Amino acid sequence: MKLYFRQSGESGSPIIILHGIFGSSDNWLTIGKILGEENRVFMVDQRNHGQSPRSDEFNYDVMAADLHEFILEHKLENPIIVGHSMGGKAVMQFAMSYPDAFSKMVVVDIAPKYYPVHHSMILQGLASVDLKNLKSRTEANEILSRFEENEGVRQFLLKNLWRNPVKNNEFDWRINLPVITQNIDVVGHELQNEQTVEKPALFIRGSESHYIQPEDERKIWELFPNYELETIEGAGHWVQADKPKEFIEILTRFVKS
């Protein structure tokens, strides 16, 4: 699958960044621009997200295969792979499936374990927006507020709203809502064909997030023995958005090490 991407920087280490569920490359532009001062940064839209193709297949195996295809297509040697949340799981699956296709990996606020479905209300909210008769983003935000009280999360979700010229400029989602809804349990699944990966791995978590618990470290160590774990104080699950300065410092140090 030919994935849509944005690039920042023309020289230095190749870095590929994968967003989380409901996200896109757009979420990483600020950080990508800073990293692009010394590296070649590729911010990718994963399948069924952003401007990448849509598919009925949606699981970590195909996301890992998409990433491998992207690396081959762009002839990237020993890239550093970064992924947040769902993107972090895609990175871990990729590392197990293609252990020789990258140099280092960074996993942001997710552990290699099963997570129960917890996006049901968001999916209900997105589905309840009547795109055909929607007048404005403000109206969409009001509808979503019945399902998600956090304004920041709503604005993040509304980045997926656009006027589709193919549909007479009607509002449309840049995510494949039916397929994501149908496969939302897959996003929480354990990784497939687990095996130990010896490459350097950095895990970054937010102190206010519950996604990586102390008891998860044993599993991380079993699969990624050459790992380090950094906690960013005051950050929630969207670590890179909550504390961008601290996030970039930690990431840059790891890239250069």
UniProtKB/TrEMBL annotation:
<dbReference type="GO" id="GO:0016787">
    <property type="term" value="F:hydrolase activity"/>
</dbReference>
<feature type="domain" description="AB hydrolase-1">
    <location>
        <begin position="14"/>
        <end position="244"/>
    </location>
</feature>
<dbReference type="InterPro" id="IPR029058">
    <property type="entry name" value="AB_hydrolase_fold"/>
</dbReference>
<protein>
    <submittedName>
        <fullName>Alpha/beta fold hydrolase</fullName>
    </submittedName>
</protein>
<keyword id="KW-0378">Hydrolase</keyword>
<dbReference type="InterPro" id="IPR000073">
    <property type="entry name" value="AB_hydrolase_1"/>
</dbReference>
<dbReference type="Pfam" id="PF00561">
    <property type="entry name" value="Abhydrolase_1"/>
</dbReference>
